[in-house]
């Protein structure tokens, strides 16, 4: 499969450009979990409840739609959110995220 989806991720002061393809990972959290070691990231494995996969979206490609299910409730429990806050586990990996830029918000573990 051609890796035709690129996502830029900033974490621990470093920038990573990750390449993937439609369907390789279920969501952005799984992609980050697999490619970059981030302490205490993705604790609930994508259920959308823990908040440890909190990212700030620095650049969203046109056409990317964020799904607002459990995300809003979980983000409301975290203290360091802003209007660019999203849960990486609620961002699906498909062609719509090509060009996405995010920054991992460290220390977002909100507990259950
Ligand atoms: S992995 Fe727990 S909220 Fe995303």
UniProtKB/TrEMBL annotation:
<feature type="domain" description="2Fe-2S ferredoxin-type">
    <location>
        <begin position="5"/>
        <end position="108"/>
    </location>
</feature>
<dbReference type="InterPro" id="IPR036010">
    <property type="entry name" value="2Fe-2S_ferredoxin-like_sf"/>
</dbReference>
<dbReference type="Pfam" id="PF00111">
    <property type="entry name" value="Fer2"/>
</dbReference>
<dbReference type="InterPro" id="IPR001041">
    <property type="entry name" value="2Fe-2S_ferredoxin-type"/>
</dbReference>
<protein>
    <recommendedName>
        <fullName>2Fe-2S ferredoxin-type domain-containing protein</fullName>
    </recommendedName>
</protein>
<dbReference type="InterPro" id="IPR012675">
    <property type="entry name" value="Beta-grasp_dom_sf"/>
</dbReference>
